[in-house]
């Protein structure tokens, strides 16, 4: 019961932090995305170090922070897109730094340092672009921007959590046929379809309130989240199995670390953002 209470309390805090941060104000949205991005990036580097490979923690996270902050400034319209090219010399800097680190497998270190940025920071860097220059639900606090809405990111997390809830409840009660037992022994096909169903129902219920795109497109988005979110979870499970760890971290009691909580986001949000950009 203590573990259940701890998980519930931590889960409530996660919901308040994520929804509150993204919904409160444009600045809080940018900061929340930065915290989640750097949190997942840090845990990735720490996990990889358990294999004997040493990614560049400081230079990698500095490059990740610069990448995200540049994306936010560009999304807000304060800089043109060409300034995103600033990250190119930072990538070269990582390669040059490796010359002086005297690692046994320097290119493994470079590869994991750069992949950590691509795997964690890049997806979260799309969050500011999903809010600036969009219309839909307003922030909780007033601001002076003429066009800003957190509707896409709020809707995304509500549908993602609905999918996770449906998959868990149906999987526990009816789950018999394993989805991918080699990677995740507890996931079932019954749970997967339960998650899809609850996500679609949630999309239908909240679509008009969210705005941004039509209710029909929100239902399609719920399918995208269910499928890609499941793959995101499986990919992180594959990572943890290859390293031999149970959780990516312990910063969230009962829930593990940043990567454990936002592994689905890393894969599914870029696809949702792409879909809305092309068809929204």
**Rg over C-alpha atoms, rounded to the nearest angstrom:** 19 Å
Binned, the helix content reads: over 70%
Task: Give the overall shape, derived from the CA principal axes.
Answer: globular
Determine the structural class based on helices, strands and strand pairing. Answer: mainly alpha
Q: How many beta strands in the DSSP annotation?
A: 2
Strand adjacency order, main sheet: 1-2
Number of helices: 10
Give me the strand/helix succession. Answer: HHHHHHHEEHHH
Kindly report the average pLDDT value. Answer: 89
> Terminal Cα separation, in Å?
45 Å
Strand percentage lies at under 5%
Biggest beta-sheet profile: 2 strands, antiparallel
Low-confidence stretches: none
Q: Can you tell me the number of structural domains? A: 1
Strand and helix layout:
Elements: H1 2-24, H2 26-49, H3 57-75, H4 87-98, H5 106-124, H6 127-131, H7 151-174, E1 178-180, E2 184-188, H8 189-210, H9 215-243, H10 258-279
Antiparallel strand pairs: 1-2
Keywords:
mainly alpha, globular
Characterization of the model:
This protein starts with a helix and ends with a helix. It has 280 residues and is mostly helical. It has one domain (2-279). Strands 1-2 form a two-stranded antiparallel sheet. It is 71% helix and 3% strand. The mean pLDDT is 89. The protein has helices at residues 2-24, 26-49, 57-75, 87-98, 106-124, 127-131, 151-174, 189-210, 215-243, 258-279; strands spanning 178-180, 184-188.
């Amino acid at each position: 019961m203590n573990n259940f209470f701890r998980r519930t309390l931590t889960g409530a805090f996660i919901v308040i932090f994520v929804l509150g941060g993204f919904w409160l104000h444009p600045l809080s949205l940018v900061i929340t995305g930065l915290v989640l991005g750097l949190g997942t990036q840090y845990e990735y580097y720490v996990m990889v170090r358990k294999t004997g490979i040493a990614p560049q923690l400081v230079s990698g996270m500095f490059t990740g922070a610069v990448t995200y902050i540049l994306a936010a400034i560009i999304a807000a319209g304060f800089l043109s897109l060409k300034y995103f090219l600033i990250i190119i010399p930072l990538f070269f800097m990582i390669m040059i730094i490796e010359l002086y680190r005297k690692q046994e497998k320097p290119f493994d270190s470079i590869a994991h340092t750069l992949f950590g940025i691509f795997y964690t920071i890049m997806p979260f860097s799309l969050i500011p672009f999903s809010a600036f220059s969009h219309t839909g639900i307003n922030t909780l606090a007033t601001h002076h921007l003429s066009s800003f809405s957190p509707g896409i990111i709020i809707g995304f997390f509500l549908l993602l959590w609905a999918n996770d809830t449906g998959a868990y409840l149906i999987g526990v009660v009816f789950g018999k046929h394993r989805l991918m037992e080699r990677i995740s022994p507890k996931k079932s096909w019954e749970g997967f379809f339960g998650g899809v169903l609850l996500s679609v129902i949630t999309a239908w219920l909240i679509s008009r309130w969210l705005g941004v795109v039509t209710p029909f497109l929100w239902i399609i988005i719920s399918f995208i989240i269910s499928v890609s979110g499941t793959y995101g979870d499986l990919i992180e499970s594959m990572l943890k199995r290859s390293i031999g760890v149970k959780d990516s971290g312990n910063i969230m009691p009962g829930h593990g670390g940043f990567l454990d909580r936002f592994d689905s986001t890393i894969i599914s949000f870029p696809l949702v953002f792409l879909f809305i950009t092309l068809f929204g």
